[in-house]
Amino acid sequence: MEKYIIKTEQIDAWLKRIIESVPRVLAPVSSGTKTEFRRIKSPEEVNNKSLTTTVSAKAAAFPPVETLFKYQKDGKDTTLTEDSFDKYPETVLWHARSCDAMGFSPLSAIFDWDYKDNIYDERRNKLTIVTFACNQSDECCFCTSVGGGPGNVEGSDIQLTMLNATDTLVEVMTEKGQKLVALLPDIFQPLSEEVDKEAVLAKIPVQFTKEEIKEHVSNAFDSPVWKRQSARCLGCGACAFVCPTCACFDIQEDAHGNHGRRLRCWDACGFSLFTQHTSGYNPRPTQATRWRQRILHKFSYMPERLGVYGCTGCGRCSRACPVDMNLQEHLISIANSNHE
Amino acid sequence: MNKLQERATDLLKGGTVKLIIGFEQGNNKIRPFFCEKPEDAEKLIYSDDCSTNNAVYLTKKELIGDNKIAIIATYKEIASIIQLNKENQIKKENLMVLTVDKDGDVTELTSFEEMEKFCEENTPAPDPVVAALIEKIDKMNREERWAYWKSELDKCIRCYACRAACPLCYCNRCISEVNCPQWLDPWKSTLSNIEWQINRVMHMSGRCTGCGACAKACPLDLPIGILTKKMSTDIKEMLGEGEGGNVLSTFNPNDKENFIH
Amino acid sequence: MNENIYLPHIMVIDKITVEAPGVKTFRLKFQNEEEGKAFQFRAGNFAEYSAFGEGESTFCIASAPTRKEYVECTFRHAGRVTSGLNRLEEGQTMGFRGPFGNSFPIEEWKGKNILFVAGGIALPPMRCVIDNVLDLRDQFGDVTIVYGAKSVADLVYKEELAEWNQRSDVKLVTTVDPGGETPDWKGEVGFVPNVLDSVAPNSDNTVAVVCGPPIMIKFTFPVLEKHGFKDENIYTTLENRMKCGVGKCGRCNVGKMYVCKDGPVFSKVQLNDMAPEF
């Protein structure tokens, strides 16, 4: 890792250079009451004050809808064509948070489990992630309880930390990051003395550990806790769609007469029809069983099968939920429970 | 304990009801609460900030079963209960409707007449923000309006929180989930997002009680509540107050359209 | 570079057999002969079949790996995709992705007796194994097949049933649900678990393979237990809803077990350890 200092006022000049050099730059942009990752054309569009976007950054590598291939039927014959990978632009994800960057590790684990998903892999490989360490947090944040933190650099190519009114620490983790620094090298001063990064980071108390949650939930399949916690859950897909690690998808046909596309689009395990067979039989017939799947998938099945947890503690699900299904609260209650 | 909590304790202790659907303090907001034990009754709260429409739970069989239950109702819940009853979705004999007045006194509304009367006397003032936005859009020309909705609904991620939060969206299989034939593209795209909202609003025509739960539920804060609101106003203007009910499925031999004959 | 795992092979429909009302078998050949030559699978594997314009559906491969010139699938038209497949004609093209999932441990069964118990549209996943076993007939002991359907019309693979019935080295018992018989029906009348009980299968050195609707499987296991079958000698397949077939789309898991990767074939011992959500 290489460390530099940059004058905070020069960051926009660097971003401007990045926008000129990279086909696509995504950054938090505000519209109405919400802030989302959007493609930007100038540094002024960025909301530098935003804590987190409503929807996570996963769309940069796993878009809400994407083409798997196209088909053309001609008489009895069918011809299939794939999108050229040139269509996937080199992308810089600007002003993401540690919890965004961390989310790509579980996503990659899912998409590359045994069979490699080359569509995801290509998009992910073309993604360079610049995170800004958090000097603020809100009541939904719990990254420190699931192994992350406001200044965690896992998954980031570069992390910036505002040290004071004038100076920003630049930590460059990867070659991809180094390439961005090389776009405007003169503004980066090698770090001459150690700086106290921790001192400026948001203080987010550790409430539990992810290992503790795994231990509790792995033997709690039949626990009444799922029914109790899920009672008010409405069964929408908001939590899954805003989540940085939820990867469940549907495969759909966009048919136009004798030609069309096969698509992959986001889906959610909370929807009542997600697992329903054509016969009408549903192995997960109640919201309680679907809520259990959500928690167990993230905190038991994924660590056991893929070696990675499906939660970065970003709190987006809790902010998005119409009925305050607060994940941190539910996990604290699980951590404090004896096996029921 | 306040009067509401005392009443709830009595109802649960005496076994009059198995479950009380009410409100509790959540994380910086008030949220729905399912009170099944007398000792949990002290968690029940009631205030003007009770913003979800808990009538949405009344059609969820897995939650209420065939049990006698009580619901602590605001104007929103009561208006929805009246409409759900018109659509034969409520077993009145299994439902106790409780209201709380400004002094904290608890009153049971025992008949639909009482509920109708309650709604007449407690109709909330129109939301000025909603009214202003409708006025703004009314003033737009077609192109501006199209541009506005395209830009707003392009943001929709199709999480269906609007559908899930609506007490009157109780279909087991929503039109968005029917695939033989596929009426709507089920993935996020500007056009199908718009189609989804048009469908939702059409299915609400003449039924929507204007509670605004759809808009409150939207994680992206999209102005979808004004669609149902505007639809309700237009229907009243065009078809009169009338009997209400679902405009799409209401017909009369004297209707001027000839496809009915 | 890796291949696109969602891109199907193009298959030509070589032959269509109407098995029962609403049930058809497609015999498929690879349009690209090279792909066909390279293709290998094992009994129990499943695949994703596409009707372009409608989507993809998951079924087992119904033909045996010992018959290499083609693959077969049998389906009932019920939803959008199967209705689309149902409209296809011989000579038309469709998509095929696979093989996916695990397979029956046929190698371990050599020298043993095999009892097949199937219900309704669940004979196809089993036909693959039956044909595989019959093609290597001298390597196995007694072969017994108990197969039932709702009515005589609903029995699938009528040709194979007639053929198996003729063979002296196969014991075939067919049954239909009460009320589903026709005047000239010569088989049993009754539900599969009851008929199985009356067949009184010998569990010595025997493997039981059970495929059918969840309710049939539920009532068949106790009958097998009653006749002395041990859990490690009972196998079944699970058929959860799937989209990708390769462990990513998040639908088919039963607890931590993924039907598409760890299954679809499971032994009763495995099922006992699995989360009760199938």
Describe this structure in words.
The complex is a heterotrimer of chains A (340), B (261) and C (278). Helix content of chain A is 29%, strand content 22%. Chain A has helices spanning 11-21, 98-111, 118-125, 175-181, 197-200, 210-218, 225-230, 238-242, 287-306, 316-320, 327-335, and strands spanning 2-7, 24-31, 34-39, 65-74, 77-81, 91-96, 127-132, 158-162, 167-172, 189-190, 249-256, 259-266. In chain A, the strands form two sheets. In chain A, strands 3-2-6-7-8-9-1-10 form an eight-stranded mixed beta sheet. A four-stranded antiparallel beta sheet of chain A has the order 5-4-12-11, with no helix packed on it. In chain A, helix 6 crosses helix 9 (287-306). The radius of gyration of chain A is 21 Å and the shape is globular. Chain B folds into two domains: 3-122, no CATH class; 128-249, no CATH class. Chain B has ten helices and five strands, in the order αββαβαββααααααα. In chain B, strand 3 (69-72), helix 3 and strand 4 (95-100) form a beta-alpha-beta unit. Chain C has 278 residues and is α/β, with parallel strands linked by helices. Chain C has two domains: 9-100, Translation factors (Elongation Factor Tu (Ef-tu), domain 3); 106-237, Rossmann fold. Chain C has helices at residues 33-38, 80-86, 106-109, 123-135, 158-166, 192-199, 214-226, 268-273; strands spanning 9-20, 23-30, 46-51, 55-60, 71-76, 93-100, 113-119, 143-149, 171-176, 188-189, 206-211, 234-237, 253-254, 257-258, 265-267. Chain C starts with 8 loop residues before the first strand and ends in a 5-residue tail after the last helix. At the A-C interface, strand 4, strand 5, helix 3, strand 11 and strand 12 of A face strand 6 and strand 13 of C.
